[in-house]
Design a protein that fits this description.
Strand content: 25-35%
Radius of gyration: 21 Å
Structural class: alpha+beta
Number of strands: 9
Distance between the termini: 52 Å
Length: 209
């Protein structure tokens, strides 16, 4: 499909796909720190006020991720940035119930032009992608370059040239997009229908009259 298989000796490139990359999960309002070798919960604000380094206990989840840093940065920058890859139904909720090929075609092609928040990845057994997958540009991970270079055996593939060019442009579109609430010009009646699909959307004052 749209993937190639780099050797372990190949340099890390944008579009490289790794499995088992650590994602750190923690709650800053209940931040678990070690005080005299005993775990305690503290607010991160209180930790900052103290102004001292602390030892902390945080959850670590291994995830699949793709390199988004540019190739020149992957050669010498201290850190490399990646985005998490998850099942596409989880990344794009509009396809939660999608089953028919015709419907998938519309989402993969038309929605890819409209929605800049993800990048579609087709299934692939070598990569362990049993389902349609998606790159979630909202979930970024930072790994020290030298550490990631030592983990190149966890690199299971990379995007081919056609897909990588598209991927690079999608990243650019995501970061330069103008952020706005797409529902702001809807009238009250239209907003009622919109909220059925997007219940988190909040009414503007002129939509309540």
């Amino acid at each position: 499909m749209i993937y190639t298989s780099p050797s372990n000796g190949d340099l890390i490139r944008q579009g490289d796909i790794f499995v088992g990359i650590p994602r750190f999960d923690f709650n800053l309002s209940k931040f678990p720190i070690l005080v005299e070798d005993h775990p305690e919960e503290a607010s991160w604000k209180d930790v900052v006020k103290e102004g001292k380094p602390v030892a902390a206990l945080v959850g670590v989840v291994p995830v699949t991720a793709i390199v988004i840093s540019q190739d020149c940065d992957n050669l010498r920058a201290p850190d490399i940035n990646l985005c998490e890859i998850r099942e596409f139904r989880d990344v794009e909720r509009k396809c939660k119930e999608t089953k028919k090929p015709k419907s998938w075609v519309k989402i993969i092609t038309q929605q890819a032009r409209l929605n800049h928040k993800w990048f579609y990845l087709p299934p692939n057994e070598t990569l362990g992608f049993k389902e349609k997958m998606g790159v979630d540009f909202f979930v970024t991970l930072r790994i020290p370059r030298e550490d990631l270079e030592d983990l190149r055996d966890l690199r299971k593939g990379r995007l081919n040239d056609v897909a990588c060019d598209h991927f690079r442009e999608r990243i650019s579109e995501f970061y330069r997009r103008y952020a706005y609430d797409e529902w702001y010009p809807l009238n009250k009646e239209e907003m009622t229908f919109y909220k059925k699909d997007y219940p988190d959307a909040e009414y503007y004052p002129w939509q309540q009259k």
